Amino acid sequence: MTERLYYNDSFLREFDAKVISCERENKSTGARDESSRWRVVLDRTAFYPTSGGQPHDLGTLGDANVVEVVDADDGRTVVHYTSAAVEPGQVRGKVDWARRIDHMQQHTGQHLLSAAFVELFNFPTVSFHLGREASAIDLEAPSIVPRHLEEAERRTNEIIFEDRVVRIRFGTAEELLEAGIRKSVDREGVLRAIEVEGFDRQPCGGTHLSRTGQAGMLLLRKLERRREAWRVEFVCGFRALGAARGDFAALSQAASFMSCGLPDVPPGITKMMEERRALLGAAKNLEARLAEHEARGLLAKNEAANSERAIVVAVIEEASAPYLALLAAKIVGDAKAVALLASQTGGHVVFAQTKGGGADMGGLLRDALKEFGGKGGGAKDFAQGSVTTGADLAPLLLHAKQKL
Questions:
Q1: H/E stretch holding 168
Q2: Distances from the Cα of 176 to the Cαs of 8, 62, 181, 189, 197, in angstroms?
Q3: Are 197 and 110 in contact (CB under 8 A)?
Q4: Left, alpha or beta for 28 (phi > 0: left; psi -120 to 50: alpha)?
Q5: pLDDT tens, position by position, 70-95
Q6: Taking a C-beta distance cutoff of 8 angstroms, is the pair 61, 69 a contact?
Q7: Nearest CA among 135, 136, 153 for reference residue 126
Q8: What angle, 0 to 180 degrees and rounded to 10, lies between the N-to-C axes of helices 237-258 and 97-121?
Q9: How distant is the alpha carbon of residue 69 from its chain centre?
Q10: Which domains does the chain have, with CATH numbers?
Q11: Could you tell me the pTM of the whole model?
């Protein structure tokens, strides 16, 4: 059994312990090779093992790096995986404090946020996820709207700014239930709970702050539907500072590009999007008129324009795949025709025929591309593909015309 020092003091950065065992182990095969790590058990530890949505601590045991910390199968022993052997006897452990305080800020912030959602809207938290960049809670709620987020965020930060005391309490499930815990548990024996003065009391084995003010600030970042729950993403403490700094930098850059003040960026973007939609609409209309004009010209140049079936073969120097498809549609739309088109710049190829024509454009294209190292396909009346940019496409179209 390992004595868990973090249960009583989450701010403990260094500690002395006795090495109970140290065994070399390979993560995948158990073989003794250079990729092995060491499985170290101590009589006491300040290292937190992965549990309850909170990742494990990192740090050192003597000269060895602690790379992972887990609970053993017995649930009573903490296992430290290290990068090197730890000699038997006494050892000095040092917790990576930057990682620990970050996890404490996120975890305490989670308790406050979850309690705020319960207090304001009776939305219980069903799970917690502490990630590398952001954390999240999954809420059981019929729906969540911006008002819910704004009020819960404000209430959480009120508790943070009031700098309330965060205490560690121990008791049985019955004793904690009588004391008013937010979520009951079925485990037996003495349990650990985290109490935020006058606001929340929740069973938890994780590391926490001693005062809410140490969380700095909580910012909500995203809301999304996840199966039967609503996932709310948030950041606390130094992460909130980094997120705010990143938002400010991005907004400042956008304002600089647009030559406006920060508050004018959102309406400026809205105006630009409206103008863009108008320009795209005008460009599509012009493109359709151009395709109509070019289709008539190609049909007029075709020697078989007045015969039973016109076969239009053309290599367009500069044409996008959508324009090439539009041009082909214009050619075969009104007259009984076949269009074998290619774009020299983009390497696009489009084969089309008037609906009900006797050929198979999909098969014809696949045959032509096979001969010339391209890829693509399609249906009986319309097919499209591509070849390597810069290839001479005239022989490909001639090959297809001969097949017809």
A1: strand 166-171
A2: 17, 39, 6, 12, 15
A3: no
A4: alpha
A5: 999 888 999 999 999 999 999 999 99
A6: no
A7: 136
A8: 80
A9: 26
A10: 3-95 (2.40.30.130), 101-255 (3.30.980.10), 279-403 (3.10.310.40)
A11: 0.76
